[in-house]
Amino acid sequence: MRLRDRLLSLCGAIVLGAGMTGASLAASATVRSGDTIQLGDAVFRLDGIDAPEVDQLCIDDHADSWSCGVEAREQLGKLIGGRSVRCDDLGPDKPLKTRRIGLCTIDGDKVSLNQQVARAGYAMSADPAIKYRAKDDVAAAKEAVRGLWKGCFVAPSEFRADKKDGALLGAACRADRDREIRAVLFPDAPSAPPGCSIKGKFAVRARVTGNIGIYHLQGCPSYPATTEPDRWFCSEDDARAAGFRRAFNCRAPKK
């Protein structure tokens, strides 16, 4: 086979492999949330776990408000520590098909990154899982009162659904402070986490298009008027994955 034909064949194999479930990608990682990383152009949600959203609040072991979603993101970054990460592509993530589900391992480690996050106590188990079942590791973190379990919080899925009456979890939960705790976990006017400027608002009219809310970008006419957002997002992908659509008066940002 001539060199040109061999190169064309190799390029074709690379392109084909990049789009196939079961492919593996290794690169420097950008941490987007406590359970989501980006390798090059590919965004992976860690299989089997569900970490707090970046704008999610918890109660710490001193009964103070705690930006647990920000800390979960920071803890994931510390686990990676600038090392290369390899992710086995397990297929598209159903809530956002441009995002992939991955079983990821840090260069030099034998235990998956998925399992390390669960063992550290910064994620719940997520079903359905494809390869990694986190329940035992999450139970061990709970027993040892690590990470989220030292405080009081609601499951990330219930936070995303704005389920204010969901179960309170963690060692710092107090039945005699139920109302006060829920007021902290679901504030009327949540503060924006660092680097997250997109405002989300729950809206009945958004349900016409199958969404639960609307998000507003900086520069949109509706942005200044949205003074009490229900959610904050760091990217449009995050907002869409949470079931929010862009406000109709917002144009796509220029690239």
How is this structure best described in words?
The protein has 255 residues and is α+β, with helices and mostly antiparallel strands. The chain has 7 helices and 13 strands. The strands form 4 sheets. A 5-stranded mixed barrel has the order 1-2-3-8-7. It has a 4-stranded mixed sheet with strand order 12-10-11-13. A two-stranded antiparallel ribbon has the order 4-9. The longest helix is centred in the first third of the chain and has 16 residues, at 3-18. The radius of gyration is 20 Å and the shape is globular.
What does this entry show, briefly?
This protein is an alpha+beta fold and 255 residues long.
Question: Approximately what portion of the residues adopt beta-strand conformation?
Answer: 15-25%
Flag low-confidence runs.
1-20
Q: What percentage of residues falls in helices of 4 or more residues?
A: 25-40%
Query: What is the string of SSEs from the N terminus onward?
Result: HEEEEEEHEEHEHHHEEEHE
Structural class: alpha+beta
For the biggest sheet, the summary is: 5 strands, mixed, barrel
Work out the number of β strands. 13
How would you describe the oligomerization state of the chains in this entry? single chain
What gyration radius follows from the Cα positions, in whole Å? 20 Å
What spatial order of strands do you see in the largest sheet? 1-2-3-8-7
What count of helical segments does DSSP give? 7
Instruction: Tell me, briefly, the overall form.
Output: globular
Taking the alpha carbons of the first and last residues, their distance comes to 42 Å
What does the average pLDDT come to? Answer: 88
